[in-house]
Amino acid sequence: MKKVALILFAVFGLALFAAKSVSAAVRCETQYGGNEVCVTTGQLQINKKVWDPDNSDWVDNLYITSHKFQTGDTVRFKLTVKNVGDNTLHNVKVIDTLPNFLFFTGTTASEFTIDHLDPDETEDFEVEARVVSESQLTVNEACDVNIAEANSDEDEHDKDTAKLCVTKQVLGVTTLPKTGPTNTLLILSLSLFAGVSGLYLILLRR
């Protein structure tokens, strides 16, 4: 009797472990300094990346030492939605939220709906934003995260962020023309010419 109970308990434990393995997955991201951080997700995963103009690549985050965007710059984001479970997900809604120093350009949508997402299926979306005017930037330099969320009718939910920084434009220093011997000689020549011309006119009048 004890053996039967132990067998049933072991079978139940294995089934529970298998169920947890199916419903849980892991998403990993590279953080500042190169460290990788992984988080547990459900069957629905969303991964958000930002375009790095300096290296022409999609990255998880752009930090203070990375490329900084300025007023008028276009910022591109990529959202990757994936079903990592065994069941089809329905009516998956994806919403992208911007920090206050960015606004949507209108060339791309900010919300998306996937009618059904089959197991192991992936959908990619691009979102385009632009940096606000300098008068709307409260500080010379700012960093914040952009948030993307995904929800399905099966109560599966996930969210991810991408960090970036903006900075005010640095105005160039106006260089005044140098005053050298050439300019001085020109001024003296013009003054001499004006003096001679004036004397000549006076003599003519006499």
Automatic annotation (TrEMBL):
<dbReference type="InterPro" id="IPR047589">
    <property type="entry name" value="DUF11_rpt"/>
</dbReference>
<dbReference type="InterPro" id="IPR013783">
    <property type="entry name" value="Ig-like_fold"/>
</dbReference>
<feature type="domain" description="DUF11">
    <location>
        <begin position="66"/>
        <end position="155"/>
    </location>
</feature>
<keyword id="KW-1133">Transmembrane helix</keyword>
<feature type="signal peptide">
    <location>
        <begin position="1"/>
        <end position="24"/>
    </location>
</feature>
<keyword id="KW-0472">Membrane</keyword>
<dbReference type="Pfam" id="PF01345">
    <property type="entry name" value="DUF11"/>
</dbReference>
<dbReference type="InterPro" id="IPR001434">
    <property type="entry name" value="OmcB-like_DUF11"/>
</dbReference>
<keyword id="KW-0812">Transmembrane</keyword>
<protein>
    <recommendedName>
        <fullName>DUF11 domain-containing protein</fullName>
    </recommendedName>
</protein>
<feature type="transmembrane region" description="Helical">
    <location>
        <begin position="185"/>
        <end position="204"/>
    </location>
</feature>
<keyword id="KW-0732">Signal</keyword>
